[in-house]
Predict the 3D structure of the following.
Amino acid sequence: MLSRKARHNFAKTIAFVLLILGAIYAGAPIIWMLLCSFKPNTEIFAYPPTFISKTFSLTAYTKILTDSVKVRFFLNSYFVSTAVTLLTLVVSIFAAYSFSRFEFKMKKTLNMIIISVQAVPPITLLIPYFGLIVTLKLYNTYWALILTYMVFTLPYAILMMTGYFNTLPRELDEAVMIDGGSRSVALWRVLFPISIPGIISVGMYTFMQAWNEYLFALTLTKTVNMRTVPIGIQQLMGQHSYEWNEMMAMSILGCMPVLILFLFFQRYFIGGMTAGSVKS
């Protein structure tokens, strides 16, 4: 029989091995995508496959970064994703503060509506939203994407921020009002600074949702100058040939904003994701 310490070490070893295998399984496609972005298009499907390209080249990246149409895809994604993130944060902060600090009629009903919106598959709303956007004469505009994306990002953002505000003691608000401050002063000068982890967490989630969205971006825009990165990648699939190396390069460039955000704000992101899980 193994001793307790030996069993503990064995369990740790198994867990470590499983984590390594999981990391390889999750990271292998991304590594292969990165390596293929440096290969000529003809070498990607060579047999036997080459792990490191014999003709290492930055041609795919050069073609993308020097093509004004492809660069426009990135600019559109940056603009739409940033606008959605900022508007979602502003609205969710006000809404979450109201849900957390006030009692009003239909509060429970509104909470149920917010939760139920999260349960509806977005694809089922594609046709209704298309008709609404056309009726409002917003088709093929930035506002079509911004307003539509906010419908899907706001419920989660409100729920997250409400949970975060619920962990903050009401005495903070009361102390501000005793000193003559208003509710807005309590929100923006006291609660906002200490809610940065939750705000960053919600902001990163919102940005990723808007950056990666494909279906509505394809349906609600028509001209090339309004397309976003996911649509730009799809357009590299030609009728007779696929530009695989450019697709891989564009995918890598598309991953960079989210990766950079996570690397810089991962501490706040992880803290914000778990902040509302336990009520103090």
